[in-house]
Automatic annotation (TrEMBL), chain A:
Superkingdom of origin: Bacteria
Protein name (database record): NADH-quinone oxidoreductase subunit N
Entry's transmembrane regions: 12-32, 39-60, 80-100, 112-129, 135-152, 164-188, 208-234, 246-270, 276-298, 310-331, 337-362, 383-405, 417-438, 468-488
GO cellular component, one term: plasma membrane
Topology of the protein relative to the lipid bilayer: Multi-pass membrane protein
UniProt gene name: nuoN
Protein source organism: Streptomyces harbinensis
TrEMBL record, chain B:
Name of this chain's protein: NADH-quinone oxidoreductase subunit M
Gene Ontology terms describing biological process: ATP synthesis coupled electron transport; electron transport coupled proton transport
Bilayer topology term: Multi-pass membrane protein
Annotated ranges, domain NADH:quinone oxidoreductase/Mrp antiporter transmembrane: 139-424
Any single GO CC term annotated in Swiss-Prot or TrEMBL for this entry: endomembrane system
Pfam families, alphabetized: Proton_antipo_M
Main location, first listed in the record: membrane
The entry's keywords: Membrane, Transmembrane, Transmembrane helix
Family: Belongs to the complex I subunit 4 family.
Organism, as annotated: Streptomyces harbinensis
InterPro entries recorded: NADH_Q_OxRdtase_chainM/4 (IPR010227), NADH_UbQ_OxRdtase (IPR003918), ND/Mrp_TM (IPR001750)
């Protein structure tokens, strides 16, 4: 048996470049004087840009790597799905890197950038992995640095506590997933998705229960990463305890990675078990969106951290919408995976935009209260208009046209699959979510009192990098609102 | 591209571009005397251009064949979901397009004279609202229709919440949450039709008359779509957002809400539910009629309660409840599934837009002069005596009220008459005794409507001109400009109903093939 696998370096360039940048940043941190630490951020941005450019030669979507010599499957495939999700992850990390600058003084810069890049490297690898071992490793590479990122803030007791909560729940989920993977391996005899897809349903009858248990347990870990109910309890504490850019990163990149993993496992590895995971995902989707939206609705605007809390819970609600097409895929809805990816793209752009505005405001109002946003339009008309647009996109109402069409794509997947009840639950959730998104939007344009004592000095303009991040997000959302086809084209073909 | 196509595209695009432009600083040369004046003038210019385009469209429209879709533009937009930029007008939508353009222009004119605060945002929102409404009436793609339908929500919310009167915040929330819940459910119905019917093209689906859609699909689709549209119309018992929204909304908001936004609901029923899912409509028609008649009776009883002395009634709330009753007639007409009834419904739609638009303008004028719309504070026990204190305003108010109660010779008459005539002989397969009962109840409703409107006229317009009641300023130039077109059209449509019916009837025949009446 030939154990040597071919490695196509061009194909695996995107995750590799991110990982190399991570190491380079860590090393450079040792030699840079404190005054020049700002360069590390520039290095990060450059590395992520380079990794994004490395996607270009792969755009045909037919390259593979780490293939078994006997044609038994490949461990890495740069197909359309992988490329689109990699683009999302890299762009998301790039936006995060932009609005995280200048890094807060209470964060160690070198470690911050290293951990962010390391996590991004894992998230870039994840959508391209085509066997369970690579997938789990990628998932852990994405998550492990995230614990540290959450705990990174110096002299703040909440960071370590929320990191510990995050860590413990996550490790439990990973352990369960590993158990599931071992069951699947026992039943199918392979770790490659293509092989599992055919071997698992054909396995010995006596192994059927083992196989089913393996499928169910494997999904648990991914449910955790997507913050699906009942694995969503870490979200609020983690987001409020973490530095704001990290919360934004978790809400988009880490969540997308989880969704991508879930898509890979369900549609590639366990297509024959749609009857098992379809209903489970449908129920999870309904519960997740309801729990997230109801909790967001109950957020008191005047309470400390209410803005981050709201974003955290709304991201749980959005995860619920993201799960809907996955559930629909079990019932043979065409283009369902594409609908999920298109939704994730829309969500990534506007949610990071919202976090960018929030992180700018947090420099002046460290309380992260929703009421800090009152009358933002007066102080920063550009930022307020952008945030209003992002929130309406999340709510899915015009003028946030792309948000509306992303929801239409998700709804139509559900309707096509005959998931009427789930569609109605989602419809009600959209109405609930509108309330808190619109309440926030309305706050932005509300008039403040004539002489607001808390705001005596003119507000400083956002840093150029933050402005760039907000601008890029807004530009993406605007272009997509006029030409929704750019992302919705994903729903027309099969991505995998 | 023909002239008609260009005109229709301009109708939809101009207000949207104008809305974005209103937020930008005025270019040099158009700065006017102040930024507020400049932006309000910009609003008048854009809505004026839209009105001109609408009138030109009316002129180039082929009046010999109003049943055909004209001025159609059909471009691919999102091929992945099969969504197209498909626009067009026929005899059903054209009157509503013109009505919207007219009311939009009159509102901009009124705003120019009254100078609302935050003029830039105000103008941008009104233009966005107008653009969304026009797009709703012009859209021929189900998802595009939905997009346009939703576009009006945010501007209306802000118009009520920011420029409204007492209780505006809760009223705005009630409006937006009711409507959005309804419309998301409607989206599900639209998608169901699109997925099962294989296209979102409203023309193709209407040509098919439900072929290719199973009975159960049609039932679910009509239920979902009907729910969304019924909230908007509003149909009893889903109306409770309307009185609050109207009471709190600023004058122009009320005018646009009553004049055109409510029409989107009934228009959707005629344009989508009726031709695309006829079986489903047939099943639900008697229930729709029952709700419609309940709305008529309920609306007029509520108004009767409000108009009593010391009942704490509010003029705007009164007119809002009267809208519930009037829209009940529209729904009754649709639910008969006959050409007569649907024509009546479409006529009543336009008439209600004209008359209620005028009424809200007039109440706004009363509030501007007296500072109140509360009937008791305004009229006391004796009456507000507007006839004596501001005779032209009082006279016009009485005219609008009488038009609203359906006096023959004015616009309010024909629609309700035709709707009730349709109920006399509903479509085959619908229970005639049930519809005769509805007819009798609707007839009772007209009596009650007459009663409360006359009582209102007595309390507001009549009364002794006491020595301490100072005379109020009479109608001013901008008020003449805003009110006259509506009053003239009310009279014209009442004396010459063919003005509207010649347009709608062929189109309705086209939608309801094989229906004798």
């Amino acid at each position: 048996m030939n154990l040597i696998q071919s490695v196509d370096w061009v194909t695996i360039a995107p995750p590799t470049l991110v990982a190399v940048t991570a190491v380079a940043v860590l090393v450079a941190d040792l030699f840079l004087p404190a005054a020049r630490k700002g360069w590390l951020g520039a290095m990060t941005v450059a590395g992520l840009l380079l990794a994004g450019l490395a996607l270009l030669p792969l755009r045909a979507g037919d390259r593979t790597s780490f293939c078994l010599p006997d044609g038994g499957g490949c461990g890495y495939a740069a197909d359309t799905f992988a490329l689109v999700v990699q683009l999302l992850v890299l762009a998301g990390a790039l936006l995060t890197a932009l609005f995280a600058q200048p890094v807060d003084r209470d964060l160690p810069q070198g470690e911050f950038w290293f951990l962010l890049l390391a996590s991004a490297a894992g998230a870039t690898l994840l959508p391209a992995s085509r066997d369970l071992a690579t997938l789990i490793i990628a998932l852990e590479v994405t998550t492990l640095p995230a614990y540290a990122l959450v705990a990174l803030r110096r002299g703040d007791g909440r960071g370590p506590e929320s990191a510990l909560k995050f860590f413990l729940t996550s490790v439990t989920a990973t352990a369960i997933t590993l158990l599931g993977v071992s069951f699947v391996y026992a039943a199918a005899g392979s770790l490659h998705f293509s092989a599992i897809g055919t071997a698992l349903p054909a396995a010995d009858d006596r192994l059927a229960t083992l196989a089913q248990a393996g499928v169910a347990l494997t999904l648990v870990g991914f449910a955790f990463k997507t913050a699906a109910v009942p694995f969503h309890f870490w979200v609020q504490d983690t987001y409020t305890g973490a530095p704001l850019p990290v919360a934004g990163y978790l809400s988009v990149v880490s969540k997308t990675a989880g969704i991508a993993g879930l898509i890979l496992v369900t549609t590639l590895a366990f297509p024959g078990y749609g009857g098992l995971w379809g209903p489970v995902l449908a129920v999870l989707a309904g519960l997740t969106m309801t729990a997230g939206n109801v909790a967001a609705l109950r957020t008191d605007p005047a309470a400390p951290d209410s803005a981050v809390r709201l974003l955290a819970w709304s991201s749980v609600g959005q995860a619920g919408y993201l799960l809907v097409p996955l559930a629909a895929a079990a019932y043979g809805a065409e283009g369902a995976v594409g609908a999920a990816v298109a939704y994730a793209l829309m969500y990534a752009a506007v949610n990071l935009g919202a976090f960018a505005v929030a992180s700018h405001l947090a420099r002046r109002h460290p309380g992260h209260r929703l009421t800090d946003y009152r009358g933002l339009y007066r102080r920063h008309p550009g930022a307020a208009l952008a945030l209003g647009f992002f929130l309406l996109c999340l709510a899915g109402l015009p003028p946030g046209v792309i948000g509306l069409f992303a929801k239409v794509a998700v709804f139509s997947a559900a309707v096509e699959a005959g998931l009427g009840v789930l569609a109605v639950v989602m419809a009600l959730n959209v109405a609930i979510a509108l309330f808190y998104y619109l309440r926030w939007t309305a706050l932005l344009f509300e008039r403040t009192g004539r002489d607001e004592p808390s705001d005596p000095a003119p507000a400083p303009a956002p840093a150029p990098t933050v402005r760039l991040a907000i601008g890029l997000s807004a530009l993406a959302a605007l272009v997509l609102s006029v030409l929704p086809q750019l992302v919705l084209t994903l729903t027309s073909g099969s991505l995998l | 591209m023909t002239t008609a196509q260009a005109l229709l595209a301009a109708l939809v695009v101009l207000p949207l571009l104008g809305s974005a432009a209103a937020l930008l600083p005025a270019p040099p040369g158009l700065r006017g005397s102040s930024p507020e004046q400049a932006v309000l003038r910009h609003g008048v210019t854009v809505t004026g251009a839209v009105l001109a385009a609408a009138i030109a469209l009316l002129a180039v429209f082929d009046h010999d064949d109003p049943g055909r879709m004209q001025a159609t533009t059909d471009l691919p937009w999102i091929p992945a979901l099969g969504i197209r930029l498909h626009l067009g007008v026929d005899g059903i939508s054209l009157p509503l397009v013109v009505l919207t353009a007219l009311l939009g222009f009159l509102c901009a004119l009124y705003a120019y004279a009254t100078r609302p605060q935050n003029a830039a945002a105000y103008t941008a929102l009104v233009l966005l609202l107008e653009g969304g409404t026009l797009a709703t009436f012009a859209a021929l793609d189900l998802v595009l229709f939905f997009l346009a339908f939703e576009t009006v929500l945010i501007p209306m919310y802000f118009l009520i919440a920011r420029w409204g009167g007492a209780g505006r915040e809760p009223a705005a929330w009630k409006f937006v949450l009711y409507t959005v819940t309804g419309s998301v459910v409607m989206l599900l119905g639209l998608l169901l039709i699109g997925v099962r019917g294989g296209t979102f093209d409203m023309v193709a689906l209407a040509e098919a008359h439900g072929a290719g859609l199973s009975h159960s699909t049609q039932l679910i689709a009509v239920l979902a779509i009907g729910l969304g549209l019924a909230v908007k119309t509003p149909m009893w018992p889903l109306h409770s957002w309307l009185p609050d929204a109207h009471t709190a909304a600023p004058t122009t908001g009320s005018v646009l809400l009553a004049g055109v936004l409510l029409k989107m609901g009934t228009y959707g029923l005629v344009r989508i539910a009726l031709p695309i899912a006829p079986d489903g409509m047939h099943t639900f028609a008697p229930y729709l009629a029952a709700f419609a008649v309940t709305g008529i009776i309920y609306g007029s009883l509520a108004c009767l309660a409000l108009v009593r002395t010391r009942a704490g009634g509010d003029l705007k709330r009164l007119i809002a409840y009267s809208s519930v009753g009037h829209m009940g007639f529209v729904l009754l007409g649709i639910s008969t599934l006959t050409a007569t009834g649907v024509n009546g419904a479409l006529f009543a739609n336009v008439a209600h837009g004209l008359i209620t638009g005028l009424l809200f303008f007039l109440v706004g004028a009363v509030r501007e002069r007296t500072g109140r719309t509360d009937l008791d504070a305004l009229a006391g026990t004796a009456g507000a005596a507007l006839y004596g204190r501001t005779p032209r305003l009082g006279g016009l108010l009485a005219f609008a009220a009488i038009a609203s109660l359906g006096l023959p010779g004015l616009a309010g008459f024909w629609g309700e008459l035709l709707a009730m005539l349709g109920a006399w002989h509903p479509a085959d397969g619908l229970s005639r005794p049930a519809y005769l009962t509805y007819l009798a109840l609707a007839g009772l409703g007209t009596l009650l409507t007459a009663a409360y409107l006359l009582l209102m006229v007595r309390r507001v317009c009549m009364g002794p001109a006491g020595p301490y009641e100072a005379p109020l300023p009479d109608l001013r130039a901008h008020e003449y400009a805003a009110f006259t077109p509506l009053a003239v059209l009310t009279l014209a449509a009442g004396l010459w109903p063919a003005l509207v019916l010649n347009l709608t009837d062929p189109a309705v025949q086209h939608l309801l093939p094989g229906v004798a009446r």
